[in-house]
Fold these 2 entries.
Entry 1:
Amino acid sequence: MRTLQISDCRLQIWSTLVLGLTFAVGLSTPCFAQGKPAADLIIRNAKIWTVDSVRPEAEAVAVLGDRIVAVGSNSDMDAWQGSTTRVVDAGNKRVLPGFNDAHVHFTDGGAQLDQVELNDAASAQEFAKRIAERAAKTGKGEWILGGDWDETKWTPAQLPTHELIDGATAQIPVAVNRYDGHMVLANALALKLAGITAKTPDPPGGVIVRDEHGNPTGCLKDAAQDMLFKVVPLPTHDQRRHSIERALAYSASLGVTSVQHMNPEYADIAVYNELLDEGKLTVRIYAAPLITQVDDQTKIGIKHAFGGLYLRIGALKAYADGSLGSATAYFFEPFSDQPGNRGLLSDEMHPISLMRDRMMKADAAGLQLCTHAIGDAGISAILDIYSEIVKAHGSADRRWRIEHAQHMAEHDFGRFEELQVIASVQPYHAIDDGRWAIGRIGRDRASRTYAFRTFLDHGVRLALGTDWSVAPLNPMLTLYAAVTRATLDGKNPKGWFPEQKLTIQEAIEAYTMGSAYAEFQDHEKGSISAGKLADMVLLNDDVLTIDPVKIRDVKVLKTWAGGKLTYDAEGNK
Ligand SMILES: [Zn+2]
């Protein structure tokens, strides 16, 4: 953790200097301009959407070191241009602040880029075929992992079973996850290695799916997954580093300059530190380890957003419940299609006082809370705990978050506002789950699902993200989802609960400033403003003016993080 503890004085001096200079430039005193250092980078002829209400649109931006020093017209940049300045002509294309994905599983995402791809398998047969093909290429002792399968894309939409894949995988253990991460399918060999049989009871917060004879089918829900994962070998350091390096390059190619890594392993943070020391950490990371490890951060006395510009910790990720797709999100009333089932509170909530105690401890230490809650009763239970903390500890700038905030009870929108809880939401989930959510929870509850507009109407701040690898990392798909709400099956072209659509400006703001606020970094990034970090993206089309349907096809031309080019579609760096 050595690197995390370095307080970067040089940066503070720079930013003071830069802010001072910018103020002076505003006065446009020519004699002062002569003494000004040349910018390292100037982007001209751009359509810049700054996400800064003081100057929402601009034509050009100048960067010195890792900071923006001027934003304005092309001619405003003349005073900053010197012989060493690199000038980029944006060709009248759109520039935005770099995207900040408020909820990713970064190492899993990077690993997924190399794993078997099951998400777009359109049938159980195709699913089985792809696993068989992977098995033929898999060495002895290795596992087949990942996959992100989605049985709702099959006809009939039935959960897979181990029998489907056992024939091709007799010697190779398989643990392929459902795309939402709340269910995994094990083959017969993996079930055997994990010691899961007909006699194994369901663990608290989990379900072993069984056939009519009580035999495990191979599907394990929520906490039951841990019984399998404990026998899956952990990735080696080199494998982990490889996944993270893949994820960093992939993020840059999509214009993502900051990510907030939910429930990382400490070994992931160690890799980030290693890359930081080597100058290879090209995406800014805020890491929120599981709340089960709360003591580790409290005992070293750190608070929220502790660290440097590229790597911070000081937040904790908690789980209230499961997911809608796995029918484990926790609701007040049963699922419409499963009358006996209201879902599950997570194992961290057994009993709820366990969660309350951990959260009280975290809050007393000044750590931030980011709590996964999907069902209306799961969300309510967390808001109850948040209220109790305010009663016990008084008010403060805590920036508590509820991750997903998916299915809201009517009366809880006001509680979000009152407690100033941030809704950390993933619009792509809306156009994905929107295919089938009404069948599972009915129209009334679905009307308060991914209710982005209602949150804004209540003065609740949004932070946007993807939940990658659960959903694609590409910000264009997130923006497309937020502004169209057109479900992936093409059945709601005018939008699924269209009254909840965001405007493109609102979506961009939530994905840049909103996400920066959610990690206590809105003073450093999230807008193209003088003094802030030069994290920017140049797009090949104008997301603000094109037909919203076309937003999903927009590509990134260049990405800069701290003024450094981290991606160039033309291959230059
Ligand atoms: Zn997640």
Entry 2:
Amino acid sequence: MSKIEADVIVIGAGNAAFCAAFAAQERGASVCMFERAPEDECGGNSRFTAGAVRFAFNGVDDVKAIMPDLSTEEIANTDFGAYSEDEFFDDMFRVTQYRTDADLCEHLVRNSFETMKWLQGRGMRFVPSYGRQAFKIDGRFRFWGGLCAEFWGGGPGIIEEETRLAKECGIRVEYGARVLSLNYDGHTVTGVKVKRGSEVFDVAAKSVVIAAGGFEANHEWRTRYLGPGWDLAKVRGSRFNTGDGIRMALDIGAAPYGNWSGCHAVGWDRNAPEFGDLAVGDNFQKHSYPLGIMVNATGKRFVDEGADFRNYTYAKYGHVILNQPDQFAWQIFDQKVISMLRDEYRIREVTKVSANTLEELADKLEGVDKEGFLAEMKAYNDAVMTDVPFDPTVKDGRGTQGLTVPKSNWANVIDEGPFEAYQVTCGITFTFGGLRIQHDTGQVLDVDLQPIPGLYAAGELVGGLFYFNYPGGTGLMSGAVFGRTAGNAAGTAAG
Ligand SMILES: Cc1cc2nc3c(=O)[nH]c(=O)nc-3n(C[C@H](O)[C@H](O)[C@H](O)COP(=O)(O)OP(=O)(O)OC[C@H]3O[C@@H](n4cnc5c(N)ncnc54)[C@H](O)[C@@H]3O)c2cc1C
């Protein structure tokens, strides 16, 4: 291998890392990225995504600015709506229970559209997220949750394109190269120590950007910081995000920040493998629960499936499922909604049973108390407010009356067979706790809250943005905004 020299080293090769690398390179810096995974497993959690990305926009003209390929027909047949910066702020404040760091949040929201344009200008492509974020009403697509775009090609498309663009502009990417630690002289970060195979070597740099993901794939840290039971969760994405980036920064005195006991976790197929499977991507998730109900081993419902749009509940319901007896739930649907279930319900690798009657279904729900389930179904069906019209594109208020665990929207009587049921457990996506950064430079702060010269961070391992919950599509946006910010500052400092 030729000797590695770079002004800026980026640790990781996920979306945040590439955005940092692009921005540093735009400042005239030479950039080398170290990716722990071998090339065929590269791309971190970013590669596992569907590519949904949340940004503020004022209407169809803004959508056209980032999707210039939209056809006249698509524009005519789609109501993209708008998603103002104020709405983005409101969502961040509401779902994090007003804990999100105001400076980080403002930087994210105010730079979201600009960063989309920057990515588009760099050659990334976006398409409308018709399949997952819109419903077709009277022949027109209507977006319902402020989230209208996804990266072309989903997560694999992101990594393929970002890798191609990086290589085209001379950014070096080293695979199978795990950064072990930061080289630090007591004041400034001067480079990194890397392990590849049996070889360990130092690489000097003027700036280092850590974009190495959270600690979701580390059983021991999960149990230590998220709490007992989290060792039992399945990992939705990369097996390589074990907290290395966070640990190496803490080792030189960086400040921990944010919701260290919190994470993003969803309902995920009960029989999914221990870590994500790139061939299946995010399709082990089962996100159509607002259209049905979920029951646990006692046969009882345990959560308001219709509390809010899916984008604002899915990331916290994984935890709720983890807390159920034996860490599982069954999602139940009838014929009225089965055609509306998301594509992920129709994959081959699915834990599913179906039956013509509820009694028959009860016999097939492995691990569930039959009598408890049938009594729950009756109580639920009797409680549905059938006089309120059903409309999945708005919070329709068609709820239940008189139940201990209400369903607030989209409640339908479940009585039309054949019925379908899908078994889920908890799948962890990423952890919320991490490093403290200066919001407008991405510089890592030390425990005295002073910037550590030469050290920057971006992506999942930035603490302080998300607490308890998360608005869908914000992870990729956060990686892009803070990656660009960190790369910009790291490249400028290295110049
Ligand atoms: C199944 C799934 C679906 C998702 N869907 C969406 C979605 O649609 N929209 C959205 O916004 N978010 C989504 N997310 C969340 C999103 O993936 C993350 O928020 C985002 O991709 C994180 O980007 P990142 O660059 O910070 O981390 P990653 O993409 O995880 O990259 C971190 C990289 O660092 C590398 N690394 C780790 N340790 C080292 C080391 N010591 N040395 C060198 N390299 C190291 C890893 O191998 C990895 O490649 C999803 C996540 C999953 C798992």
